[in-house]
Amino acid sequence: MTQSKYIKEIAKYGLENDQDRLLHALNELIDHSKKTRKTNFALQLQSLLKDSIRQQSSTGLAIHGSKKHISQEEDREINEFILEKLTSDYSFDNLVCTDNIKEELDYFVQEHRRIEILQEFNLPVSNKLLFHGPSGCGKTLAAYVLAGELNKLMIVINLGAIVSSKLGETSKNLSKIFKRAATEDCIIFLDEFDSLGKVRDFSQDHGEMKRVVNTILQLFDYLPQDNIIIAATNHADMIDTALMRRFDLQVNLELPDETHIKEIINKTLSNGIFEFDNKRNLSKIIKACQGLSYYTIQKSLITTIKRSLLSITADQKSKKPKIDTTLWISLIEKEQA
Description:
The protein has 337 residues and is of the alpha/beta class. Helix content is 54%, strand content 10%. It folds into two domains: 86-252, Rossmann fold; 258-336, Helicase, Ruva Protein, domain 3, CATH 1.10.8. The protein contains 15 helices and eight strands.
């Protein structure tokens, strides 16, 4: 059966309010999508289906304090802590980093792709990973790449909403989100993980700091092996040493060297639509980019492309668009200032 026929069945059973057949048709569409390599679409449907079933079980009239009422309240609270649920099409081809880092990440992926082999011999599965390094060096992108490589749903957590000034609230909030996330076959992404370092300030209660760290340690220890925690921080030194040791893999994503500057430029221009107006300026540009992040380099290049396009006159439109390298150098110099 084709995808369009599945969609027609879903529409039909939905309009007829035939719940059983609707769920059956949805599950068939999910299986069909997996078989036809539309994995991201299948994961999104599965997530929608789970959320709908969960909400359905807690709708209707409910006595205050009943299980249904409590479930509804928990859903509202947890949704405040989730920035988004997403799937990713990114792969290792999108990531610019050293070969050693790619090798480590590939081993991490292989552990989950072949998790049954490790479990057969009662070996632990690495499922807690920390990306650290300067801003703009690919920590978030690396998380998206792992989500894409593993075809897993990624839940992006809003740590800013979880961290509370109220005594004991931060630990409770963390427990709630981990409890819910553990029911999904997913990646939990904790960006700006150092925001938990707020409780380590000297102005904060030392006991509260200890409670939060102990809570995270316990949550990490009891995390199901097929679930993955990815944390990212610009300030690894702010994270408790005991907590750092709980990460199975710590990856330092640094500022790019000349080789990786060339690679990010080539990847950005991989479609072959644009060319440089003066290729002799390229070596000067690469040297000028040293000390800048991947994000800043790519942003300055895209800005240069846009401004170069906007300066094209009517009689130049038929020619291949050229990138104004002099303009790009000036933008890089502004970033370095």
